[in-house]
Amino acid sequence: MDIEAVRTFVAVAAAGQFQQAAAELRVTQQAVSKRIATLERSLGVTLFLRTARGARLTLDGRSFLPHARLVLTAVDRAAASVRPGERALRVDVLNRRIAPAQAVREFYRVHPGVDLELVPLPEANVHDAIAALLSGEIDATFRAVPMPATELPEQIVAHWVLDDPLQLLAGPAHPLAGRATIAPAELSGHRIWIPGIRPGTEWAAYYAELTAAFGLHIDRIGPNFGTEALMDAMADSGELTTLVGSRDRYVWPAGHDLRRIPLTGPTPVYPHALLSRAGNPHPGLAALREHLITAAPPAPADVWTPPWTR
C-alpha cells in the first residue's frame, strides 16, 4: 500500500475537498485524484463520493479512516526513531561500568532534557565501532585509537576527552595490598590477570604497549566469566591482581576487602577519545562533546600513554 496515497486520503477526509488537500500537501489536484484512485483500486472500494461541494466519505471510507490514521502515526514514529534530532542520541560506551559510561551519566545529570540511549558494543573493536558510526547505527563512541588521527577515515572526527588513570586491584592477602601507591615498574614479576583482552582490539594494543614499557606480564588465559568471577578469584588469592580505571565503578561483597591502589611515577592512563561522524546533525552530540571537554578532570603531571596516542 502506498503510504503517500494513505496520507493523501487522510488529508482529503480532513479537508473535505481535493483542491484544499492538494494545497496542504503541496501537490497538484490531479496528483491527489490519481493517488486516491490508485488507493481505491488497491482496496477494491470507493472511499469518497464526489459532490459539487467537495468529497464526502463513503461508509467504507469512514471505516478505513481510523486505521489509516494509525498507519500514518506508526510510519511517522518509525521515521522519527532513526532521524537525527528526533530520535535518541545513541552513544557506545563499550561497557556500562567503565569511565565513559560514568561520564555520560554525569552529562545526562547536567542535561536531563537530552534524549539519550546507551548502546554498548563490548565485542566491537575500534574499526567495528567506526563502521557503526559511518552506517548511522550509533552517533558517538568512546575508544582508544591505536593509530595516528590522520589515519582515521576522513568522515570520522576524534576528540580526546577522557584520560582515565589506571589502578591496581588486589585482594587483602596480596603483598602489595597495603601500599598507598605503586610505580608501574614495581608490578614486574606480579601476576596481572585480565581475561577480557582479545587480540585485534584497541585495549589489547594498549596493554601490549604498557607491558613493553614497564616490563610487565599480563595474563589473559582462561575464559572470561565476568567481573564478579574475577573479583571472587582475587579475594581468595595472594597472587592475582588486575588493572582497572580510576573512574570505573565496580561493586564487590564487603568481605572481599579488595584494594584499589593508584599507579604513579609515571601514571598510566587509558586514553578515551570520543569518535563521531563529521556532519552528524544530532543536537545532542554537540552538547555531549562540549560537556566532556569542559568537564574533563585535570590530567596527572606524570602521565604515561602509548606513543600512538593523539
TrEMBL record:
Keyword Cell membrane in annotation: no
InterPro entries for the chain: LysR_HTH_N, LysR_subst-bd, WH-like_DNA-bd_sf, WH_DNA-bd_sf
Lineage, uppermost ranks: Bacteria, Bacillati, Actinomycetota, Actinomycetes, Micromonosporales
Listed name of the protein: LysR family transcriptional regulator
Entries under Pfam families matching the protein: HTH_1, LysR_substrate
Natural source organism: Actinoplanes palleronii
Stated family: Belongs to the LysR transcriptional regulatory family.
Keyword vocabulary terms for this entry: DNA-binding, Transcription, Transcription regulation
HTH lysR-type domain segment(s): 1-58
Membrane spanning stretches: none
Keyword presence, Nucleotide-binding: no
